[in-house]
Amino acid sequence: MDRSYKLADDEFNSLREYIYKRSGIFFTEKNRFQLEIKIKERLSDTGCGNIFNYINYLGSFNNSSDELNNLFNAITVNETSFFRDRKFISAVEKNVIPEIIKTNKVLGFGQVRVWSAASSSGEEAYTIAIMFAEHLKSELSKWTVRIIATDINEDVLKSCRTGIYSGYSMRNMSPDIRQRYFRHIDSDRYEIRDDIKAMVIPEKCNLMDYESCRKYKGIDLLLIRNVLIYFDAESKQKVLKTCFENLKAGGYMFLGHAETLFGFNNDFKLVHFVNAIGYKK
Ligand SMILES: C[S@@+](CC[C@H](N)C(=O)[O-])C[C@H]1O[C@@H](n2cnc3c(N)ncnc32)[C@H](O)[C@@H]1O
C-alpha cells in the first residue's frame, strides 16, 4: 500500500511555500517524499482531496486554525531525549550554570530565566531543571528558576505538561539521577518530581512569530537546538535576531552540535568550552 500522496510540482511548490511562510520550515526537493507521506493523512482527514483545496481550507496567512495545528503536528520532527549531547551537557553543567548562579545570586537566592525554544516534549527543559537542582541542592527552594519550554507542535507540548516519559527517552541519564528525580509509574513510564515539573512552563510559540517570541525577554540561557536545520537562511536570520534581543547581556545561547551561526549572525561572541561551543551576548 502506498503510504504517500504523490505531489505534482505545482502542488509541492504551493504547499511548501505555505508551510515556509507559516513556520519557517523549508522542505527541499530531497525532503519532498517526507512531506508526501505526512500530507496524505491531512488530505484524507479533511476530505480536501487535493493540495489547492487543502490550502484554501487552511485559510489565509494571518489566520490560525485547528487544521494549521494538525499540519504543524504532522510535519515537525520531534526527536529529543534527556541529557542529549554529552559535550553540550558538560559545558552547561560545568561552566554555564555555575556562572549564572554566581551572577544572579543576591543575598543567598536569586532568579534565573531559561528559554528552551523548540523544546519538543520537554526533555531538554527538564534536563536543565535537574541540572539547576543538582547545583543549588538545598538552596533550590529559595531560588526562582523558570524554564520556558516552547514549541509550535501542540502534541509534544501536551507530553511536556504530563512530565511522564519512557525509559528510552531517559537512555542517556544516570540511574542515580533517574532514581532521585523520577517516580516509576509502571513498566516503562516514569514521572518527573513535582518540584522539578513546577520549574518548567510549557507554552506554544512559533519562532517565526516575532510578537509571541518577544515576551521571553531577560533570558540567562537560551537553547535553540536542532531546529535551525529545518529553516532556510532568511528564517534563521530572523529567529537569531529575536534570540539576541531576548537574551540578557552576558546570557548564553546554545545551538545543536551540527548547527552554526556562521554567515547568519555576527552579534554574538563565540565561547569555546571543552569540545563544545556556545554563544554569548
Ligand atoms: C528535533 S526537535 C529538537 C528538540 C530539542 N531542542 C532537542 O534538541 O532535543 C525540533 C523541534 O522544533 C519544533 N519546531 C519546528 N519549527 C518550529 C517553529 N517555527 N517554531 C517553534 N518550534 C518549531 C518542532 O516541533 C520540534 O519539536
Describe the protein's architecture and organization:
The protein has eleven helices and eleven strands. The protein has 281 residues and is of the alpha/beta class. The chain folds into two domains: 9-75, no CATH class; 86-280, Vaccinia Virus protein VP39 (Rossmann fold). α2 runs antiparallel to α4. The protein is globular. The protein starts with 8 loop residues before the first helix and ends with a strand. The relative contact order is 0.13.
The average pLDDT score comes to 95
Bound molecules: S-adenosylmethionine
CATH top level class name of the largest domain: Alpha Beta
- What general outline do the C-alpha atoms trace? globular
Q: What is Rg?
A: 20 Å
CATH superfamily membership of the largest domain: Vaccinia Virus protein VP39
Q: Can you tell me the residue ranges where pLDDT is under 50 for at least 5 consecutive residues?
A: none
- The DSSP helix count reads 11
Task: Please outline the helices and strands.
Elements lengths: L8 H15 L8 H15 L4 H8 L7 H10 L10 H19 E2 L2 E9 L5 H14 L7 E8 L2 H9 L1 E2 L9 H7 E5 L2 E4 L1 H4 L2 E5 L5 H4 L5 E6 L8 H14 E9 L13 E5 L2 E5 L1
Parallel strand pairs: 2-3, 2-8, 3-7, 8-9
Antiparallel strand pairs: 1-2, 4-6, 5-6, 9-11, 10-11
The structure holds S-adenosylmethionine (SAM).
Question: What descriptive keywords fit this protein?
Answer:
globular; three-stranded antiparallel sheet; Rossmann fold; eight-stranded mixed sheet; alpha/beta; binds S-adenosylmethionine
Overview in brief:
The chain has 281 residues and is an alpha/beta fold. Helices cover 42% and strands 21% of the residues. The protein has 11 helices and 11 strands.
